[in-house]
Amino acid sequence: MAMEFTDQNFDQEVLKSDKITLVDFWAPWCGPCQMMGPIVEELAVALGDKAKIGKLNVDENPATAQAFTVMSIPTVLIFKDGKVAQKFVGVQSKEVLKEALEKI
Amino acid sequence: MDKTYDLIIIGSGPAGLAASVYASRYKLEHLIFGAEEGGQMNEIYDIENWLGDTRISGHDLVARFVAHVENYGVKIKKESVSSLKKNEDGTFNVETAQGSYATKSLILATGAKPRKMNIPGEKEFTGRGVSYCATCDAGFFREKTVAVVGGGNSAATVALELSDFAAKIYLISVEEKLLAEPAWLEKIAANPKIELIRGTKVLEIKGEDKVAKIVLDKAHEDKTNLAVDGVFIEVGTEPGVELAQRIGVEIDAQSYIKVKEDMNTNVEGVFAAGDITTGSNKFRQVLTAAAEGSIAANGVYKKIKLNQNH
Questions:
Q1: CA gap A96, B284 in Å, rounded
Q2: Beta strand A52-57 with A3-5: parallel, antiparallel or unpaired?
Q3: For B281, how many CA atoms within 13 A lie in the half-sphere containing its CB?
Q4: Angle of CA points B210, B112, A98, to nearest 5°
Q5: At what angle do helices B286-308 and B14-25 cross, to 10 degrees?
């Protein structure tokens, strides 16, 4: 299952993660974000232990969104070794994200 | 694949949802596919011309449409259609990542997506100040200065929506006379946060890590550079017709699907409805999309009933 990232756990769960980590920045009012929800869940299942997959609600966690200049949602950031390895703005397919995770 | 449906509707915006309600009442055995329930409607902040509701948000109206569809036992399949195929016996195959489905007829209601301006900086700053969805992103611009580019209803409503968040909004229209409904223009004129800049083109979007300014083709208060934190682009939409073209559906010069009076395309059994078509004088409204959906479902009903009588 996809994880819930927050301003509080972001450092520990994402930046200090020993795995490649995908973060879906979303908010409940954002229509296109609804499309990303199930895609991210499927990715979490498909990748199992190979990567960490989760969501961050920008409404509840504005500091993290601001720290990574997320000004549009949905935005997906992929982190490796505490740094942004890739950024996607707008809805992405499961295939595109899976391929990106496997390439990094 | 064990079953051939009467109808598969692709798209779950107002056109697809209305088509489903009518199809249910015509007892057409059908499926409806849509990755995002409501489609572009989710991005409408405020609808004031849907008959019977003096004011409702796009999101709330979508919820009512979906409830209406589900009332007939239909569940929207949140699968994206990857391919369409026409079979020799006149039926069609619809493929998604989850499965393959056969149907006697199709209603294409996949709508449109925001048109890009194709100016320098637009792509570079997408997600870093450039946005095509105010409902998604308005919250990032609290107490900031933003530009809305466009002069139609979408641009007008986006400017009004942003006025709940931003400190200052420039509404920049290439036309001298805005195309938006006068009812919206009155609200804009009365809103102290919105400044209208007419007859002016945005040439470029500039900044470092995020948007900092835009360049105009003529001076506004003696300057062609306007400092802004965000740029909302509302310059119309373009249809998504890739799927339709794979089964030979004809489009016009602007890529809209050509439809007849009953919403049938040039391909027998393939109907289209909503923003994707040449219908309704290309007047893009929730109301016209829903109307086209109902006409398409009626067209399918007549076609299938007619075939059964043979």
A1: 31
A2: parallel
A3: 2
A4: 60
A5: 40
Range of the domain at A86: 3-103
The Cα–Cα gap between A25 and A75 comes to: 5
- Residue B137 to residue A71, Cβ atoms within 8 A: yes
Question: Domains along chain B?
Answer: 4-114+237-308 (3.50.50.60), 130-233 (3.50.50.60)
Please tell me the pTM assigned to this model: 0.88
Q: Does any CB of chain A come closer than 8 Å to the CB of residue B42?
A: yes
Catalytic residue (one of A27, A30, A85, A100) = A30
Tokens coding A47: 């990748």
How many whole angstroms separate alpha carbon B53 and alpha carbon B85? 40
Nearest CA to A75 out of B273, B140, B144 is that of B140
Question: At a CB cut-off of 8 Å and minimum separation 6, what does B169 contact?
Answer: B145, B146, B147, B148, B159, B162, B163, B193, B194, B195
Using one digit for the tens of pLDDT, what is the confidence trace for A4-35? 999 999 999 999 999 999 999 999 888 888 88
CATH value at residue A64: 3.40.30.10
**Which whole-number Å values give the CA distances from A9 to A56, A58, A61, B5, B183, in the listed order?**
10, 14, 10, 48, 47
Helix (H, G, I), strand (E, B) or coil at B15: helix
Residue whose pair of structure tokens reads 């819930």 in the numeric block: A4
How much of chain B is helix, strand and coil, in % rounded to 5? 30, 30, 45
Q: Is A30 a catalytic residue?
A: yes
Instruction: Report the complex ipTM.
Output: 0.90
* Res B309: pLDDT: 52
A 10 A CB-CB count for B261 gives 8
CA distances from A102 to A51, A94, B212 (A): 9, 12, 35
Residue holding tokens 């209305």? B18
Q: Which amino acid is at B164?
A: D
| Helix axis angle, A94-103 to A31-47, nearest 10° | 50
Catalytic-residue membership of A27: no
Across the A:B interface, residue pairs with CB atoms under 8 Å apart total: 71
Rounded CA separation A38/B79 (Å): 10
